[in-house]
Structures are given as structure tokens and as C-alpha cells.
Amino acid sequence: MDDLNYYRENLEKIGSALPVGADAAAMMDFAKNAAMNSGLAVKGIEYSGAGAGVDTAADPTSPEASLKNYTISLKLSGSYGNFKSFLAIIENSSRLITVESLGVASKSEIKSGGESPEEESVPLPPAGEKILDYDVKLSTNYY
Questions:
Q1: How far apart are alpha carbons 28 and 8 in whole angstroms?
Q2: CA–CA dist 72, 98 (Å, integer)
Q3: pLDDT digit string (tens) for 9-32?
Q4: Which residues lie below 8 Å from residue 103, measured CB to CB, with a gap of 6+?
Q5: d(CA 3, CA 38)
Q6: Rounded to 5 degrees, what are φ and ψ at 120?
Q7: What spatial distance separates the first Cα and last Cα of the chain, rounded to whole Å?
Q8: Under a CB-based contact definition with an 8 Å cutoff, are residues 39 and 123 in contact?
Q9: CA 129/CA 84 separation, integer angstroms
Q10: How many CB atoms sit inside 10 A of residue 105's CB?
Q11: What residues make up the domain containing 36?
Q12: What total number of domains does the chain contain?
């Protein structure tokens, strides 16, 4: 029993990689905080419903049969260096997160003549770096 207590922290980390239940709110919060801590502006975040991640028709008794996934789509803005920091945080997370898709575009000009509230939250990039817009789709699994 003492051995289990000794490894408790490591066992909890394993449990966080594939948690029981979706807990999408915590994942959305994690992704938003990762972006903000990397210096990116979060312009939007969306949750796409849970669905079966594995074909259960092949063998419904397999442990993977109950594995499900969901996606989170983020609209971010910032420098390329900040985006690389964001990806490093996602990669080093104890949670198994997959980058499903990534879109990058140049920062579009504001045509309204004034600053929008979104533009005020965009961090200034380091000298010589451009601000880019990113569309990122992340997926994660759970039981």
C-alpha cells in the first residue's frame, strides 16, 4: 500500500492524460490560458460535441470501445514566436492533445477606421515580427 502512495502523483498524471468524462470546460480554460500565457490574443473559442473516437463495431468488448473525443477550435492572434510558445505548452501538457488542423493568415487591415475592442487586446509583437491570425483545432480523448 505504501508503494501506491509513493507513486500517487505519477498515477494521477497518467489519469489526467485520458480522464473519465469530457470535462470540456477545463480543457477550454487550459487552451485559453495557454494562448494568453504565450502572448497570444484569444479572439474566439468553440467546443465541438463529443463523439466516438474509435469504431466500436469491430470489437465492442475492447477497452478502446468506450474511447470518445471532442474538439476545441481557437481563433488566435499574435506573433509566430508566441504561437510556437503556445504549441510547446500544448505539447508538454500531461493531457493527450492533438492538433487536428491549423490555419495561418496575415493580419487583416481594420476597415472601420477605428480600433475594435478585439484589436486593443492584441499584444505588440517584438520588433521585426508581424502579427498573424491563427485558426487552430485541437482534439482530445476521454473515457
A1: 26
A2: 10
A3: 776 766 666 565 657 888 899 999
A4: 134, 135, 136
A5: 38
A6: -70, -25
A7: 26
A8: yes
A9: 13
A10: 10
A11: 2-142
A12: 1
Residue 121 DSSP label: T
Is the pLDDT at 65 greater than 70? The verdict is no
Place of cell 490574443: 41
| CATH number of the domain within which 115 lies | 3.30.70.60
The residues pairing with 98 across neighbouring beta strands, listed in sequence order, are 139
Helical (H) or strand (E) element with 86: helix 80-91
C-alpha–C-alpha distance, residues 138 and 47, integer Å: 10
Name which of 31, 33, 109 is nearest 71 in CA terms: 31
How do residues 82-140 score in pLDDT, each as one tens digit?
A: 999 999 999 998 888 999 999 999 865 333 334 444 444 555 655 667 899 999 999 98
Euclidean distance between CA atoms 66 and 124, whole angstroms: 45
Q: Which helix (H) or strand (E) holds 119?
A: helix 117-120
Q: In Å, how far are 2, 42, 71, 129 from 125, measured between CA atoms?
A: 51, 15, 29, 6
